[in-house]
Specification:
Layout (H helix, E strand, L loop, with lengths): L2 H12 L2 H5 L3 E6 L2 E7 L13 H17 L3 E12 L8 E12 L2 E10 L4 E15 L3
Antiparallel strand pairs: 1-2, 2-4, 3-6, 4-5, 5-6
């Protein structure tokens, strides 16, 4: 994959409206790999005062989308599971890292990790994406 193709895919991915709504910043997007960061505030808390599981899942999923689509072709999640390992506590942000770890035809398997600002592992996810031959820009 040419660098310009990855750069074009990254431009499209960074314009994702839901990720922008959540203030997710994509720090790295390269073929099959992405890292993002989401600053936290009181809006991310649940009724118990903990970071909502949906917020944790959202950063993992958005970063999964970035990694799966990084080659410039449309890919869609077909299955994602999440294991919440520990509450994030009082952290200013969450960081997610996603890597493609296997490819089988049009299916790609991805491992997602969500961590606090000090590196504490909060959640791990495993997901499958269906990779199409349709360019992202279409």
């Amino acid at each position: 994959m040419e660098n310009s193709s990855i750069e074009e895919a990254a431009r499209i991915i960074k314009a994702d409206p839901y990720a922008k709504y959540l203030n997710i910043e994509f720090i790295l997007i390269e073929k099959g790999h992405a890292i993002s960061r989401m600053p936290l505030d009181r809006r991310h808390l649940n009724f118990m005062g903990l970071v909502h599981g949906g917020a944790i899942f959202s950063i993992a999923d958005a970063t999964f989308g970035a990694a799966a689509n990084s080659d410039g072709y449309k890919a869609m999640a077909i299955h994602v599971s999440i294991d919440y390992l520990s509450p994030p506590g009082d952290t200013p942000y969450l960081e997610a890292e996603v890597r493609e770890d296997a490819r089988a035809g049009r299916g790609g398997h991805y491992r997602m990790e969500v961590r606090t600002s000090d590196g504490q592992l909060v959640a791990v996810c495993n997901g499958w994406a269906y990779h199409t031959s349709r360019p992202l820009g279409e």
